[in-house]
Amino acid sequence: MIEKYSKLLEKEIERQKYGKQPVSLYEPIRYLMALGGKRLRPMLTLLAYSLYKENARKIMPYAVAVEAFHNFTLMHDDIMDKAPLRRGHPTVHEKWNVNTAILSGDVMLVKVYDMFLNVDKHILPTVIQRFNKCASEVCEGQQWDMEFETQQTVTDAQYLNMIKLKTAVLIGFSLELGALLAGASEKDCKSLREFGINIGIGFQLKDDLLDAYADSKKFGKQVGGDIIANKKTFLLIKSLELAKENQRQELQDWISKKKFNKTEKVKAVKDIYDNLAISSLTEKKINSYFKKGFSRLKNLNCSATRKTDLIKFTELLIGRES
Q1: pTM, whole model, 2 decimals?
Q2: Do 114 and 221 share a domain, yes or no?
Q3: Choosing a second label site near 81 at 20 to 30 A (CA), which of 41, 95, 141, 297?
Q4: Is residue 128 part of a domain?
C-alpha cells in the first residue's frame, strides 16, 4: 500500500499546475515540489484515512495540499537561513532571487487553500480552522528557533516546545486530516494528532542525534553541521546543563570562536558529549516520545490489521540512519 500511495502522490504532485503567468512566479513552486523528499506528511494523511475507509485516491489532492504547505514553509525557511541547497539542489532564492522566493511562497500558501476548497462542506470549516491553528503554530516555532540563535540560555523544555511547534504539529495535523476526511470520531482524530506530535518530536530529536553521530556515507550531508553552526540542539543544551565547569568552559570557548578547524571542533565537542553520555540520554528521550506516540494508537476505533501500514511506515522512519 505504501508503494502504491507513493506513486499516486507523485502523479498528483505532477498534475497540480498552481498557475501559469508570470512563469517566474509559478515555476519555483513546481521546481521545489518536484525535488522529492520523504513525502512523510501526505503519506500519513493517506494512511490515517485508510484506517477507516478504502480508496484513499479520492483524498489525494488534500494530501498534496499538506505537502504543498510543508514546502511553502521550506521555501521561506531557506530564505531566513540563507541556505544554498535544498535536497542537494539550489534553493529557490538562490536559483531565482529572494523577492521571487517570497512571492512564490506567498502564492503557494494561497494555492493550499484552493486545494482544500473541495473538501465536503460539512467538515470544511473544521479542516480550515485546524489547518490555520497548525499553520500559526509552525510560524511560532520558526520564530522561537530564530530567537534561540541569540539567546544565551535555552532550556530543554523550551527547545522541545519549539520543535513541537515548528515540526511536530504539522505531522499531527497530517494524520488528523486523514481521520477527519474519513469521518472518524473526534476521539480518534485527537489520538492520531497526538500520535503525530509525539513521533514528530522523536523524529526531530533523532535528526539532532544523527547530525552528530550518523555514518557520513549514509547521512548525505556533513556530519557535525549543527556543532559547527553552534545550533542549540537537544544535545548541546543538555551538555551545557550537565557539564562540569571545565567542560562548560570548553564548550563556550568553541561556541565563541569565529575561526576554527571544523574537524577539530566537531571532535572536541563530541568528546564532551561522549563523556557526558549525551547520545544515550538523547536516545532515551527519543524512545520515550515514540513510545508515548504509539500508545495513542491502541484504542483507535478500527481493526488492528488496518493499523499495520501506518505502524510499518512509522517504524521504517524511526529506524533510518540518514
Answers
A1: 0.93
A2: no
A3: 41
A4: no
pLDDT (mean) for 86-115: 94
SS (H, E, C) the chain: CHHHHHHHHHHHHHHCCCCCCCHHHHHHHHHHHCCCCCCHHHHHHHHHHHCCCCCHHHHHHHHHHHHHHHHHHHHHHHHHHCCCEECCEECHHHHCCHHHHHHHHHHHHHHHHHHHCCCCCCCHHHHHHHHHHHHHHHHHHHHHHHHHCCCCCCCHHHHHHHHHHHHHHHHHHHHHHHHHHCCCCHHHHHHHHHHHHHHHHHHHHHHHHHHHHCCHHHHCCCCCHHHHCCCCCHHHHHHHHHCCHHHHHHHHHHHHCCCCCHHHHHHHHHHHHHHCCHHHHHHHHHHHHHHHHHHCCCCCCCCHHHHHHHHHHHHHHHCCCC
| Same domain assignment for residues 168 and 89 | no
At residue 162, what is the residue type? M
| Least confident piece of the model among 15-19, 73-77, 262-266 | 15-19
**For residue 285, what are the domain limits?**
162-322
Could you tell me if 179 and 103 lie in one domain?
no
Q: Which of 66, 91, 118 is the last residue of a domain?
A: 118
Rounded to whole angstroms, the Cα distance separating 82 from 180 reads 37
Instruction: Express each pLDDT in 295-318 by its tens digit.
Output: 999 999 998 999 999 999 999 888
Residue 221: pLDDT band with limits 50, 70, 90: low
Neighbours of 231 (CB within 10 A): 15
Higher per-residue confidence, 277 vs 219? 277
